[in-house]
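User: quick one
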Amino acid sequence: MKVSVTVNGSQVAAEVADRMLLVHFLRDVAGLTATNVGCDTSSCGACTVLLDGQSVKSCTVLAAQADEREVVTVEGLSAGPDAGPDEMHPVQRAFRAEHALQCGFCTPGMVMATVSLLAENTDPTEEEVRSALEGNLCRCTGYHNIVRAVLAAARDDAAAGLAASERRPG
Amino acid sequence: MIPAPFTYQRAASVDEALDLAARGGEDAKFLAGGHSLLPLMKLRLAVPEILVDIGRLGELSYIRDDGSHITVGALTSHDELARSGLLASQLPLLAHAAGQVGDPQVRHRGTIGGSLAHADSAADLPAVILALDATLVARGPSGSREIAAGEFFRGLFETALEPGELLTEIRIPRPQPAGWSFQKFTKRAIDWAIVGVAVQGGSVALVNMGPTPVRASAVERAVAAGAGPRDAAAHAAEESSPPEDINAGRGYREHLARVLVARALEESRSRA
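Assistant: Done. Structure below.
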């Protein structure tokens, strides 16, 4: 079927199989490969993207379900792969500053889950951060630096005076 | 992993959805959030030839105060249930339990109607609506009908819905002021419940203690007769037939049921 998705602000239209998953649409059709396929069973969260502003696991959404909707991937948060720290999204900057990644496989999903969390809850407690990330698995860090980064990003945003609506990309 | 090939059809109204399903017959299935159905389709445990997407039917997404009832549209997401101020004040059991389903990403996509119609014995919300004595409204080619929650669940992944019938609404009688509790035991945060318990006043329903959610009638009778939480909870595993699987054997589930029912009754009492 013909699917047309607004991805990171640009329209991506293609004729795809009805059974194509959103994550494959993003990687293979839109050519945006930052979103990873991890477990493929909606457990690990590596494929997390924003669909109409809310975090979803793109391995469990059909491309057809995203037709005429807005998707934001981690590529859409900053000026691109060569963006310096100043051009990064506050959540990316916080992950960098707090060393919230090791191998980096889970990171795009972690960052997008965090962006979704902070759009819904501007001032989460540590416990709220931990439960908001329960759908995202990391096998390297033990989570402590990730949680620190999310709390730092929330403080950062508060300091910059960003309203939740401004912080929501796309 | 991708599903086997199927034809995707998107409905623009409930009538169109029913029409598409009628034409598809036994080969068609409704797709809401897809968070129960798509994983099964990837594993080839479900192989529908036609998916009728009802995900954009805004007419099925609402939470309404209808006086004696709170009425919830079948397409309301778990996240919307969990954030509803109306539910928080009138049906906190449902709001709280919906907030415990899966993880935030799953709650953004998964719907109450999808969860009930899918009827996984390990799902949280079927036991919750059983404890709340809800009525389910289904629409089919020949009109609407009401199904009591106690009649709705027929077996594992099996409900009273006929092929082509769409669950559209859940009507929940406004409970008398009373305590409530929802408890579930999982190995990891996002796992399905090994055993779960929903308590609303004197009603007690169990998750994953049989092929369908079950009322713990012996516990309810003991509570009604004035037994304390621990004494009443001793009856929790009676009249149940818990599955044996990779997570737990029958005896372990029976033990969990007694422990969780005791906790739930104590928490409910503290909120009464």
